[in-house]
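pasting for ref
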Amino acid sequence: MTTANKLTILRMALIPVFLGVLYADFPGARYVALIVFVAASLTDFADGYIARHYNQITDFGKFMDPLADKVLVMAAMCWFVERGRMPGWVLAVVLLREFAVSGMRLVAVEQGRVIAAGWSGKVKTAATMVCLILMLLISQEEPNFFGKPDYVAIISNIVIVATTLYSGAEYFMKNADVFKNAK
């Protein structure tokens, strides 16, 4: 098993730890969860770099790496929806984009084509992770310099939706021929 694959497995293993700590009721639990989330997010960047730099690209990594990213991000987003810091429709937009892009990739595979992750998709993932980190770091529940409106959550939700819609539109525009050739 490659180092990159081990990092992907570590990221998957950190997801239940992240959620468990978030739901635990002890002082500073959110900050411990933040550390776990940051560590899991960093494994995303590390495994991608290692896989490309050391030619450790595997079928396992091609499948599990994006899945691990999605599960980590969706777990955090579900918690924020539950806490009222993210509207459910933001999560729905992200889910819709993920299902649509995954569906397009499946159609492409049937045609013998692989649609690699585009730059905008990588920017979307990084921006979403940074926004979620900021939302974990700066909580509306505690006094902060942003005041009562939760500006961190508002701006983070806008960034998440904007990067999600842009990257989804880009995938479909660049690969529209996939559907023309579908059986």
